[in-house]
Amino acid sequence: MVQKTEKIWFDGQFVPWEEANVHVLNHTLHYGSGVFEGIRCYQCSDGSSAVFRLEEHVSRFFDSAHIAMITLPFTRQEIFEAILNTLRLNHLKAGYIRPLAYLGEGAMGLLPADNPVHVIIAVWPWGAYLGEEALQKGVAVKTSSFTRHQVNSMMTKAKISGNYVNSTLAKREAWADGYDEALMLDSEGYVAEASGENIFCIKNSVLKTPPLGSVLPGITRDCLITLARDMEYRVLEQRFTRDELYVADEAFFCGTAAELTPIRAIDRRAIGAGEAGPVTKLLQQEFFSVVHGDNLKYAGWLTEV
User: Fold this and answer.
1) Catalytic residue among 159, 208, 281, 297
2) Which of 62, 68, 128, 200 is most open to solvent, judged by the fewest CB atoms within 10 Å of its CB?
3) DSSP E strand boundaries for the chain
């Protein structure tokens, strides 16, 4: 369950959590025509708090809105500052940040007309998305029967609310079958991503991650490509099949919510030794060093609250 905080930023005003309500006939509720972001704030080792790659997340929020033909009634700077102020008002030292833009009550039907655009920002404490134990021991994964969106059927570079019905179906199927997460293939049968995470596999110390075809351009994905290359690992943005994944030495998911979560098995096949491998552990250690402010080389990725 989401742990409630005191206030939600709602169209430029702070309102109590319980009063941040919408009309049942808002357009986005019926047709999925909204956009959102997922962002994390970390408590740093020195006791301060910082948001990880805030500028990039705000930019993607606006890019998603543009792709979805939604004109946001606030500037990028206003949303940037509103996120920081929402964290401050709720006295949240670390947690998850959810900006959402949606179309309100107005025209009903597939074509929105003068429906107002509303924007909210909510924050709450949130630990490891796939579980604290998963960060250490890894997760068991099932290849989903649901195919990831084809690039011309949905706009795969945008975090559009309706896109995630595909993810929800895949996630529920995996859970019902006793797995932690779903692996999704693209329309040609190549590995794409998980229900809400990007994926990497490692063979002979070479990292591979699917190219940005049907794959969301993950900000954590971009971070890990940079970190791995700076650590002198070879990183390829290259298609691969699930049987190539079965025989990988290591594999992991990454994303704002999942952070860096090892994969221990896929479709009842152990990946490597069936636990987090050495390269995965090193990257995970480096990632958490960065987000907690311990690696000054990447201090520009953090925005102090």
Assistant:
1) 159
2) 128
3) 7-10, 13-16, 35-36, 39-43, 49-52, 95-103, 117-124, 139-143, 181-185, 191-194, 198-203, 206-209, 234-237, 250-255, 259-266, 269-270, 302-304
